[in-house]
């Protein structure tokens, strides 16, 4: 009687083995199509000034950090690029100087470039997990360029003191501005003759 049970045990074992192999094969096929979870790497880019004068420097700051995620792991080979500004230079953040971005660290980068027109930048950060997985994040910002510049004018004018009425003819005055109101070569100042209050419509007189 005891020997009769052996064939049944053998049959059950082989059935179980076959089912396990089928399950493993199906899991491998469908599992290969599933994207692997990635660390929540983030980058933020912003310009120090959103509006600058033509041909002035636009100064950009980049902050790289981790958002909240169960899958966050430390990353190596951190690289930040900008499609409009190069080179992007590392500033600070690697607290233990091991060239590895830990999940609680924030790394900061800087870049500057002269702009002559409105510009939108896209910054990209990449890193590598311990298993070799590549992680990427992007962010964008924009800077508007003003084509009206303050110009330094040096004029020979007749200055009138508004309190005493005293006139100082042929006074040489230097000032900066786009909005210039006097047109007859006569400028009116406060009593201290502060040239900063002078403005003209015609810088050629």
Describe the SSE topology.
Elements: H1 5-32, E1 41-47, E2 51-53, E3 57-66, E4 75-82, E5 89-92, E6 100-101, E7 107-114, E8 119-128, E9 134-146, E10 151-161, E11 167-177, E12 186-189
Parallel strand pairs: 2-9, 10-12
Antiparallel strand pairs: 1-3, 3-7, 4-6, 4-8, 5-7, 8-9, 10-11
Q: SSE order, as H and E?
A: HEEEEEEEEEEEE
Helix coverage percent: 10-25%
In CATH terms, what is the fold-level topology of the largest domain? Immunoglobulin-like
Overall form: rod-shaped
Strand line-up across the major sheet: 2-9-8-4-6
Could you describe the largest sheet, including whether it forms a barrel? Answer: 5 strands, mixed
> How confident is the prediction overall: mean pLDDT?
76
Number of helices: 1
Give a concise summary.
This protein is mostly beta strands and about 200 residues long.
């Amino acid at each position: 009687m005891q020997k009769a049970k052996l064939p049944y045990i053998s049959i059950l074992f082989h059935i179980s083995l076959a089912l396990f192999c089928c399950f493993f094969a199906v899991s491998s096929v469908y599992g290969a199509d599933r994207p692997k979870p990635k660390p929540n790497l983030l980058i933020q880019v912003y310009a120090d000034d959103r509006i600058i004068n033509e041909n002035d420097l636009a100064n950009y700051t980049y902050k790289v950090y981790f958002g909240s995620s169960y899958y966050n792991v430390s990353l190596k080979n951190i690289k930040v690029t900008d499609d409009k500004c190069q080179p992007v230079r590392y500033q600070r953040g690697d607290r233990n100087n091991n060239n590895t971005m830990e999940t609680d660290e924030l790394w900061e980068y800087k870049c500057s470039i002269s702009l002559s027109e409105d510009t939108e930048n896209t910054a990209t950060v990449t890193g590598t997990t311990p298993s070799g997985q590549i992680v990427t994040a992007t962010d964008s910002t924009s800077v508007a360029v003003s084509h009206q510049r303050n110009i330094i004018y040096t004029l020979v004018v007749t200055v009138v003191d508004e309190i005493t009425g005293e006139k100082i003819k042929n006074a040489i005055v230097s000032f900066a501005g786009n909005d210039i109101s006097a047109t007859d070569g006569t400028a009116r100042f406060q009593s201290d003759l502060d040239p900063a209050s002078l403005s003209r419509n015609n810088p050629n007189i």
